[in-house]
Design a protein that fits this description.
- The complex is a heterodimer of chains A (about 575) and B (about 280).
- Chain A has about 575 residues and is of the alpha/beta class.
- Chain A contains 18 helices and 23 strands.
- Chain A has 4 domains: about 170 residues, Pyruvate-ferredoxin Oxidoreductase, domain 3; about 180 residues, Rossmann fold (3-Layer(aba) Sandwich), CATH 3.40.50.970; about 70 residues, no CATH class; about 110 residues, Rossmann fold (3-Layer(aba) Sandwich).
- Helices cover about 40% and strands about 20% of the residues of chain A.
- In chain A, strand 10, helix 10 and strand 11 form a beta-alpha-beta unit.
- Helices cover about 30% and strands about 15% of the residues of chain B.
- Chain B has 9 helices and 10 strands.
- In chain B, a hairpin with a 5-residue loop joins strand 5 and strand 6.
- The chains are: A alpha/beta (about 575), B alpha/beta (about 280).
- At the A-B interface, strand 7, helix 7, strand 8, helix 8 and helix 9 of A face strand 2, helix 2, helix 4 and helix 9 of B.
- Strand 17 of chain A pairs parallel with strand 2 of chain B, so a sheet runs across the interface.
- The complex binds thiamine diphosphate and iron/sulfur cluster.
- Iron/sulfur cluster binds next to loops of chain B.
Chain lengths: ~575, ~280
């Protein structure tokens, strides 16, 4: 595989997002595979933000270390990142920057060039994109296409102005240089380009989401705004709630009334939701909660990534009740798992938690075109008619009772309660009914275990030396770490868990394989390791962890593994 | 005599003489008078003695968490506008634990009726002070007497321009059922704060105490419930004279009217997946 890594850095508000969004789409149009990772601070102006773009002639699953083209919108970007430059790495700096010692530096004052073209300073972004494009292709057609798509509704003048600026940047960067361009796939792949915070809500819509309520919290807000933006056209409701407690309770109310409903939040907001999750557990109301994790505790690092809410998602809350916790590892899985989430919620009449994190939420990836037809909708034991004898919590072998919706049926009433109740849903306090109802609810967990998603494996199945086990957004980095290990002659296998609760029994079988089991996770205490220990009584031979708020690069994993012997 | 469709005979967890009996009787009466079918009515409640009410009346029930009555009722109403949604709970539930939701429900104007069984104490937890306890009331948590200003739900509701603001008295069922009927018919958020004697824990605001004080403000020919300023001023009357009745009523667009998706009928009856989903996916190409 041949890669080209671009890092664009600058202050918040300097146009970084515009430039990178433009490039992300143009790179995809031009036919490369792409992974783009965003690193931004919790502020609106100033500071240091950057985006990594990794384009390649084969599918890529994460970003890696090393930079081929460093684009600095400020001096800080050069100071912080010049050491990451690969051999022959080039820096494009906006305006006057101190010349580098070991690298080729191209100085272009983006805003000034825009002005020279008779265009407003905002078109400095197009100049920058044009200059970067000089390193990727020998013509600007993809950039022109994207500019036309982006600014088409602002009129031809704006489009042409932007194209002029891009052309000027492109010409300046090429001046006096012979540039070789990164290798492209032989055939331009048929792909989509999107980030986790696009895939999750789109998956939800494909799964029949009709109601969402949420209170904004980074990095989950993208999901909320996405649904809001499409709500009118797709006839879906998105209600901004007064707090996370209201958000989940509204979703529970809507779900009780019969629609597919969800909410999305991050750690602190998720903490506020735990009492209501118990309500959904007790009253057996299907509701889906996306927790886009950020590093905790407390407000933590609002714009960074971590996998520190795993045990909280699995065990958090008062009392015992069945639930499922899913952990999509990439954009594609995020889309399809939303279908699984809503189906599990309906089939088992329980809350389902989808663990995302900032890395998944904000990273763009080229993926095979997503196919909504592959998301089938199963609403479980939903009945359309019942008479006055109907009992919402009828005891059954599976623990799942036929579910009537309020207002439907011929006289059947839907009585639901979070307080302990009898088969009819009315309040009880006697021990006998309590035991029966508790056992009915918990029996659902048996079915959920059987239905649990199997681990996804990649790499060497026969006699692996290392087995790297992970969940959620480490999927891409672990996969590429396995490739690096195999490249070093070390047969290795990846075991990725798209579902972390209940854990699939198949995970236990991994322990029958030879090889060192290493658990890779982005948290301090080793939450997946503890979970596997508690649920499957299995212990790994080592682990790879980090808790710096940043995603893994494959090299991080290999270094920790081989450097420290995996401990 | 209308048929009593909402009445059920189930043993309650309430003390004999509790004001909750007056409220449930008035409510059943109001619903019967409106000719509603229990299967089309949803009672949403929180936790407390008042929160148990839905279990003693016929209809669909969503008995939720302490304080979370209003957001849950809001979600249910948005999902199925065809349901008549009646939210109910105690003053602790609505004004303490659920205080933030109360403020925002007033702003949103979702089309539900909210009945607060206001006994000015926490009944279920055995008699602690509530936000609406009178100054000086001695309870288990306030041995030196309540020192905080009493929460005035009516004044707050009128301040936030809630569409329908009323007060009833559990000891006057005929009046209460009329007020409840008007509240249920009102298109929008209707608050009915009900003075509810708690015979066990509130030895101050008793039946006797109320009987000597309450009067129907809508009998006053000079009173205009469409006059917000007048309503707000009257909402502060408390002591020798205590007004009950409809304090304030105006027309306001309901939450549903602001939600485009609900123009296509009840959400729960709409197709799950929109034919326009393809447009969403196309933007990633
Ligand atoms: C989160 C939470 N906090 C506290 C309680 C305990 N609790 C139950 S009811 C109640 C207050 C009851 O007062 P009120 O809401 O006025 O209802 P009443 O019993 O007087 O009808 C409290 C504090 C609870 N169930 N849940
Ligand atoms: S404690 Fe008070 S409010 Fe509760 S049932 Fe008894 S009298 Fe009614």
């Amino acid at each position: 595989m041949r890669n080209f890594n671009i890092l664009i850095g600058g202050e918040a508000g300097q146009g970084l997002v515009s430039v990178s969004n433009l490039l992300i789409r143009a790179i995809t149009k031009e036919g490369w595979y792409l992974f783009a990772q965003q690193d931004y601070m919790s502020r609106i102006r100033g500071g240091h933000n950057f985006v990594r773009l990794r384009l390649a002639d084969q599918p890529v699953y994460c970003c890696e270390r090393g930079v081929d083209l460093l684009v600095a919108l400020d001096q800080v970007t050069i100071d912080l990142h010049h050491e990451e430059l690969n051999q022959n790495g080039v820096v494009i700096a906006d305006g006057q920057s101190s010349p580098g010692e070991n690298f080729d530096l191209i100085s272009i004052s983006f805003a000034e060039i825009a002005k020279k073209q008779g265009q407003p300073p905002i078109m400095a972004n197009a100049v920058a994109a044009g200059a970067i494009w000089a390193f990727l292709a020998d013509n600007l057609s993809a950039i022109e296409l994207v500019l036309a798509e982006t600014f088409g509704d602002k009129g031809d003048e704006v489009v042409q102005g932007n194209i002029k600026c891009a052309q000027a940047g492109f010409n300046l960067a090429r001046e006096g240089r012979t540039l070789t361009h990164p290798a492209k796939p032989l055939e331009p792949p048929e792909v989509m380009i999107l980030k986790g915070n696009d895939a999750l809500p789109t998956g939800a819509l494909a799964a029949g989401l009709k109601f969402m309520s949420a209170y904004p919290m980074t990095p989950a807000t993208g999901v909320t705004e996405f649904i809001a933006a499409h709500s009118e056209r797709l006839s879906v409701v998105m209600e901004q709630a007064e707090d996370e407690i209201a958000a989940i309770n509204m979703a529970i109310g809507a779900a009780y009334a019969g629609v597919r409903a969800m909410t999305a939040t991050s750690g602190g907001g998720f903490a506020l939701m735990t009492e209501a999750l118990g309500l959904a557990g007790s009253a057996e109301i299907p509701v889906v909660v996306i927790n886009a994790q950020r590093p905790g505790p407390s407000t933590g690092l609002p714009t960074r990534t971590e996998q520190g809410d795993l045990l909280f998602a699995v065990y958090g809350g008062s009392g015992d009740y069945p639930k499922a916790v899913l952990a999509p590892g990439d954009v594609e899985e995020a889309f399809y798992l939303m279908g699984t989430a809503f189906n599990l919620a309906d089939q088992f009449q329980t809350p389902v938690i989808v663990l995302s994190d900032q890395h998944l939420a904000d990273s763009y990836q080229t993926v095979k075109p997503l196919d909504p037809a592959k998301i089938s909708i199963d609403r479980g034991n939903l009945i359309t008619d019942a008479g006055p004898e109907y009992k919402r919590y009828q005891y059954t072998d599976s623990g799942v009772s036929p579910r009537l919706l309020p207002g439907f049926g011929s006289g059947g009433l839907v009585v639901s309660a979070g307080d302990e109740h009898d088969e009819e849903g009315h309040l009880i306090e006697d021990a006998e009914t309590r035991i029966k109802m508790m056992e009915k609810r918990m029996r659902k967990l048996d079915g959920m275990k059987t239905a649990a998603l199997a681990p996804v494996t990649y790499g060497v199945q026969e006699e692996p030396e290392y087995i790297l086990i992970g969940f959620g957004s480490t999927k891409g980095a672990v996969r590429e770490a396995v490739d690096l290990l195999i490249g070093k002659g070390i047969p290795s296998l990846q075991v990725h868990l798209p579902q972390v609760y209940p854990l699939p029994d198949k995970l236990r079988q991994i322990w029958n394989l030879p090889g060192r089991k290493i658990i890779v996770e982005n948290n301090y205490v080793g939450q997946l390791e503890k979970l596997i220990g508690a649920e499957l009584a299995a212990a790994p031979d080592g682990h790879v962890r980090k808790y710096d708020g940043r995603p893994f690069a494959p090299q991080d994993i290999v270094e920790q593994l081989l450097g420290g012997g995996g401990r | 005599m209308t048929e009593k469709r909402f009445t059920v005979s189930r043993e309650t967890a309430w003390c004999p003489g509790c004001g909750n009996f007056g409220i449930i009787n008035s409510l059943s009466q109001a619903l019967d008078n409106l000719g509603l079918d229990p299967k089309d009515v949803l009672f949403v409640s929180g936790i407390g003695q008042a929160g148990k009410t839905p279990h003693y009346i016929k209809g669909n029930v969503l008995n939720t968490l302490h304080g979370r009555t209003l957001p849950t009722a809001t979600g249910a109403k948005i999902a199925n506008q065809e349901l008549t949604v009646i939210a109910m709970g105690g003053d602790g539930d609505g004004y303490a634990e659920g205080g933030n939701h109360f403020l925002h429900a007033l702003r949103k104007n979702v089309d539900i009726t909210y009945i607060v069984h206001n006994n000015q104490v926490f009944g279920l937890t055995k008699g602690q002070a509530s936000p609406s306890s009178d100054l000086g009331m001695i309870t288990g948590t306030t041995p030196r007497g309540v020192s905080y200003e009493s929460f005035n739900p009516l004044a707050v509701a009128i301040t936030l321009n809630a569409g329908f603001v009323a007060r009833g008295y559990a000891g006057d069922q005929e009046h209460l059922s009329k007020v409840l009927q008007a509240a249920i018919q009102y298109p929008g958020f209707a608050l009915v704060d009900v003075l509810q004697p708690c015979v066990t824990f509130n030895k101050v605001n008793t039946y006797q105490w109320y009987r000597a004080r309450v009067y129907d403000l809508n009998q006053d020919p000079d009173y205009n419930p469409h006059d917000r300023k007048m309503a707000w001023e009257r909402s502060w009357e408390w002591g020798e004279e205590i007004p009950i009745g409809i304090f304030y009523q105006v027309e306001r667009a309901t939450l549903s009217e602001h939600i485009p998706a609900l123009e296509n009928g009840p959400l729960v009856k709409q197709p799950l997946v929109s034919p326009y989903l393809g447009e969403v996916l196309a933007q990633f190409k």
